Target: GntR family transcriptional regulator
Amino acid sequence: MSARMTAIYYRVAEDLKEKIMTGKLLPGEMAPSESQLVEAYGISRMTVRQGIGLLVDGGYLYSVPGKGYYVAAPNLDKIIIDASQDRFFGQKMKVTLKKVDVVTADDTLAAKMETRAGEIILRMQLTLNSREGPVALDCRYLPYRKGEPLLENELQYADFPHIAARHSKVVLARSQFTIGAVLLAVEEAKALETEPGTAALCIEQLLFDRGGKPLGWSRMVCRSDRYVMTGVAYPYAERV
Amino acid sequence: MSARMTAIYYRVAEDLKEKIMTGKLLPGEMAPSESQLVEAYGISRMTVRQGIGLLVDGGYLYSVPGKGYYVAAPNLDKIIIDASQDRFFGQKMKVTLKKVDVVTADDTLAAKMETRAGEIILRMQLTLNSREGPVALDCRYLPYRKGEPLLENELQYADFPHIAARHSKVVLARSQFTIGAVLLAVEEAKALETEPGTAALCIEQLLFDRGGKPLGWSRMVCRSDRYVMTGVAYPYAERV
DNA sequence: TAGTGGTCTAGACCACGGA
DNA sequence: CCGTGGTCTAGACCACTAA
Model:
């Protein structure tokens, strides 16, 4: 956070973190109390608290009012996948807009968008390419709004959440992903220059506004020989 | 974080968050300065800073020293997948330990574990079942340590990171996931009670210690008709 | 009762940015 | 120059926990 790492509170946090990371303080054990640290460093309590706050936020410590601070057990339960559009889940990819049209929603599409079957939906079809060739087909759906032409430029270069947010003139609140495996259909395989029946990743993304209403849906199929998703899990939020 | 939501700093944060969420403060705009909030609420600067700190940590605001606080643009780039073992990526699953044995590492396994081919590796094979039947096969590998019998009880109920950490007597630092799509092999399909050539999710997990050394590797194949991974992306870390 | 963390105050000095 | 946020102080009162 701070550019200068020379702050005293920062030093307090580093020292405590070091004790935790080297096993001098084990999960479940009590960390030094605030007053002990005030004493040890010869600084004021608020400064000590600022340092401890970094470790609490980072998941290293948790506090029990009336008792003290305890060392938290590391946990690797949350996988984080970097889905920045320009890097396409960690890899550089060239995005090409193939087609924009409108379709009438069938039952499944209507269910996803929480609208009625027969509703008019805007559809965008994109291809993602790496140097080796086509990697994925992405099909994105937005509610159709007449009199609001979308700029193809934007469609091609902005990521889906941004397009959907601008299209609906709202702020996005949440995005939900579903990741599965499918066999490529004939047309999909053709577009991806491979054989039908090849295994592919299928990544669906549903966008919601603050009211929990769906703003857009996308379905992407990826040649699994050219692309795998990667994610990491860290026990701590690195802040110190 | 705090049990009582009646703290003044908490109120400051809530009020600012409300302004951001309702569009009264737009991304890129400058938030009220600390001194303005001191004035407006009639409280001291440190209390104001505590409130603002919640929003900064939550990703609502960022500070530019010498200038002020700005409203951050919401970003949905980080997908979070809850991989708690007992819920198996969000779904309840019965885990059965099928076999524990030792194998000699072939080239690919040796590469994953960063050891030499021919090295002895401990292998655990598990099956995951839902009410509908078998869902996934999980094969886990740990470096073999003689004289350290693993308790089958633990193997069955503890999650892989915990087993690996205890086995190697270290603290885990990181876990890396690779998610792809594969076609089920004959034996896999048989164990999963389906046909060879069915599409399946393949989730690999590599565990590292603090020195970046691999501590364990697992490969799981999941019937995609019975299981899909789900993840969410939130623009903000909810703290207020 | 003594110790803990949670909240809050009213100051202070600093580095940085912009007019 | 003044306003901004970043750091730090030396107190205070509170609710809670444990002995």
User: Anything to note?
Assistant: Chain A touches chain B through 51 residues (CB under 8 Å). Chain A has a mean pLDDT of 89.
